[in-house]
Design goal:
The structure is a single chain. With about 250 residues, the protein is α/β, with parallel strands linked by helices. The chain has a single domain, classed as Rossmann fold (3-Layer(aba) Sandwich). Helix 4 links the parallel strand 4 and strand 5. Helix 1 packs parallel to helix 2, helix 1 packs across helix 9 and helix 4 packs parallel to helix 6. Bound molecules: NADP nicotinamide-adenine-dinucleotide phosphate (NAP). NADP nicotinamide-adenine-dinucleotide phosphate binds next to helix 1, strand 2, helix 4 and helix 7.
Length: about 250
């Protein structure tokens, strides 16, 4: 365990499954205490946090919908109380919707995507800055925003609304990074490509990974752990001069 990483605390929104869960496991192995946020699946969240504790680490599972301001405030307050002040945020909670053209989308669908993927990411980033910024008495830290290759590709006939929500995240990464760069905070992003997690089937796209994988330049889908490794690097001191940029982890897609 790297000495300088002992006592670091990371908040992972959507840490119970997929990319968030893989990052929770790797972060714990690096010595981070981990706040595993989830919104529906308490069993999955408890499993991740429980495995970390069983391995001698520190972790808690905390339910909160990132699109709900009061719940986000309570989530961070619980983390302060139980684990201590965060030094990193993985802004990861995100959803897609069943494939549709824009001319088929209703306002409710679009707003749900924007509320969770954009508003939720802003609320979590705000709480993180309030704790990490030297302007607020903090000791600095890192925010890693999970975007998507869809922000570049646009996701036509699948989910342009989702792609646009991730475009907003890419812009937030640049703006917030510059806003807090002199306050000890780095803000970076990751654009995962086609990653083999539940997100596809749980939003009605059963078989999407198998169907699209051959078209990825490297010829396969990525794993959640391949994204998590990039997140851990970006969070760590080895990336100390990296801010305001978003890394594609997309197999060339
Ligand atoms: P996933 O397997 O579906 O897991 C999503 C996680 O987010 C779960 O822990 C879920 O918790 C949580 N979550 C969902 N809505 C939430 C909310 N409103 N508040 C708090 N937590 C919430 O997804 P994933 O594939 O790992 O995706 C993670 C991130 O990567 C997302 O931002 C996604 O857009 C992005 N991404 C994924 C891919 C891909 O191909 N998989 C590609 C590009 C980008 P519950 O189980 O409790 O709902």
């Amino acid at each position: 365990m790297a000495a300088q990483q002992v006592d670091r605390v990371v908040m992972i929104t959507g840490g119970s499954r997929g990319i968030g869960a893989a990052t929770a496991r790797l972060a714990a192995a690096q010595g981070y205490a981990v706040c595993v946020n989830y919104t529906r699946d308490a069993t999955a969240a408890g499993r991740i946090a429980g495995a970390i504790v069983a391995d001698g680490g520190r972790a808690i599972a905390v339910k909160a919908d990132v699109a709900d301001e009061a719940e986000v405030v309570a989530l961070f307050a619980t983390c302060d109380r139980e684990l201590g002040r965060i030094s990193a945020l993985l802004n990861n909670a995100g959803v897609v919707a069943p494939a549709a053209r824009v001319d088929q989308m209703d306002a409710e669908r679009i707003l749900r995507i924007l509320h969770i993927n954009v508003l939720g990411a802003f609320l979590a980033a705000r709480e993180a800055v309030r704790r990490m910024s030297t302007r607020h008495g903090g000791a600095g830290g890192v925010i890693v925003n999970i975007s998507s290759a869809a922000a570049r590709l646009g996701a036509p006939a699948e989910y342009v609304d989702y792609a646009a929500s991730k475009g907003a995240i890419d812009t937030m990464t640049v703006g917030l990074a510059r806003e807090v760069a002199a306050e000890g905070i780095r803000v970076v992003g990751i654009r995962p490509g086609l990653i083999d997690t539940d997100i596809h089937a749980s939003h009605g796209a059963v078989g999407r990974v198998e169907r699209l994988a051959p078209a990825v330049p490297v010829g396969r889908a990525g794993s959640a752990e391949e994204v998590a490794r990039a997140a851990i690097w970006l969070m760590g001191d080895e990336a100390s001069y990296v801010t305001g940029t978003t890394l594609d982890v997309a197999g060339g897609r």
